[in-house]
Amino acid sequence: MSGPRELTLPTDKMRGVVQDGVGWMIYNNPARHNAQSLEMVRAVPTILSAFAEDPEVSVVVATGAGDRAFVSGADISEFAERRTTAEARAEYDAEAANAGAAWARLDKPIIAMIRGYCLGGGLATALMADIRIAAEGSQFAIPAARLGLGYGLAGIETLVGLVGPAWASEILFSARRLSAQEALQIGLVNRVLPAADLEGAVRELASTIAGNAPLTLRAAKLAIREARRDPALRDRDAVRRAVEACFRSEDYLEGQRAFLEHRDPVFKGR
After folding, report:
1. For 47, which of 64, 98, 109, 163 is 20 to 30 Å away at the CA?
2. In this structure, which CATH number among 2.160.10.10, 1.10.3130.10, 3.40.50.1820, 3.90.226.10 belongs to the domain 5-210?
3. Verdict on whether the full-model pTM lies above 0.85
């Protein structure tokens, strides 16, 4: 096992750490329940781009510092300055769009490890992960209706695609908080675990994923993403190319050898 390697970032409210094939993106504002300030939003593309380019990173885990919150939403203390005038909203929205694009570009698996509050923009963040694992006692909500905010179509599409229109309607119209068990029942999260077991389970899953063939992971993520799109807009050729790259890779031969030799494969991503 290698020691952790920390990214250099322009803010201490976000952390990027690489260890044992896993990139950890940590929302590091526990004094405000990891509420996202604009400087935190701006750091996301830097972190995810570094993970995307790092051959040592096979899987990404997004989480919040401390045990009280994943991300509790946007930092409302900034709303008067950052999200009131049309010009300020346009700047904020552009930075948020850059962060969203960085999530969308990342072709490596992403796990959201959720403790405590996962609210508003925090829930939108968790929805951009491929897998969501939560601790018992976590709470989920989109309180926009209590704040007078409007939610854009992209976020709504993701929510509806995951839980369906009826549950998306209840989440958005009521603005109430769902328990971890409710989130599990409607498919918002994959698993709910005792808080003491959460990090160990996530590390085990991330390690399992990191030990698998990178080209296969990339092809699977691409195919899943395209399967969620309108059939008329799916890039089927891109999926075919990704699948063909797997069959033409050294890793495909290594997987066969390892199976026949009854050992774990050693994949190189080529």
Report:
1. 163
2. 3.90.226.10
3. yes
